[in-house]
Amino acid sequence: MSDPNLIDPAAFAAEKQSLQGKFLLSQLDERVWSHEYFADKQAEVSFTLQGGRDRWQRLFLDLNVKGVLPLFCQRCINPMPFELDETSRIVLFADEASLDEAMLSDEELEGMLIEKELNVRELVEDQILMALPFSPRHENCANAVLDEANQDKPNPFAVLAGLKSSR
């Protein structure tokens, strides 16, 4: 395996290996860097991947992805920082029957079939996309145009209600 992003997941987990790295959003797949929420494609994310065995002796990969991603606020369209700090445990299974059985008994479980090669970059990309908020927004948007538009104005239907009640 000459690509440093490719690992043998079973060996990686069995040998309790670890891997750390960083990616710019622009280095990731188009489905990530072209996402409409990202305000800066040069933002950096770091990751840590740790292999091991759980108490049932199942192989697993613990993935942590961190970074501050500038996202466009969907209210004011100005950039806002989004603190990304996501950790997931991916349990590895040799066959689909074992995976299905484990997933049925534990709804929280993240599992996958053991592959000969696993692309770490793709794991990081998936983690980023799953962590993005549905509609990123500032707590309080400092946008004069929005503030003016949202000011309390008299309800035009209140006048109609007044006319109706005066009959």
UniProtKB/TrEMBL annotation:
InterPro entries: YceD, YceD_bac
Keywords for the protein's UniProt record, in alphabetical order: Ribosome biogenesis
GO BP annotation list: ribosome biogenesis
Function: Plays a role in synthesis, processing and/or stability of 23S rRNA.
Family classification: Belongs to the DUF177 domain family.
The protein's name in its UniProt record: Large ribosomal RNA subunit accumulation protein YceD
The species this protein was found in: Neisseria animaloris
Lineage of the species this protein comes from: Bacteria, Pseudomonadati, Pseudomonadota, Betaproteobacteria, Neisseriales
